[in-house]
Amino acid sequence: MSFDKNSLREPRRRKERLELDGGPAWVWEETVAEHLHKLSMAERPPGDPRGGIDLGNAVVWQILYSLYESDKPDSKRLFDESELPLVYQFRREEFDRIMAALGRVNGQSEREAADWEAFTGASEAAQTSR
Fold this sequence. Notes:
The chain is 39% helix and 11% strand. The protein is an alpha+beta fold.
């Protein structure tokens, strides 16, 4: 049995529904094209002595590329590139839930998810009302 390259023509991205303050949203698995574009957009400028990728910026681009209106194949992203500043307006608790869902749909291991939760303090988020 050999690899069926035609299988790449069929949409098969993993998706997860989230309830956010603004309403329901769907987190979709990244494609390779989205992943590489995200890294390109998050690359520090040539004159920056730190060089490399700005991880915070990469995360914001990942959220922009991964949030959709529904799980339907023709669904639109919640944000277009001109709305990138809006991604920064999510509350921290929403951000933590989005990041956890991104990990699940992109195949993050349980260990990686636990490490992310420990790093962000997501497990310590208090349940509060607004």
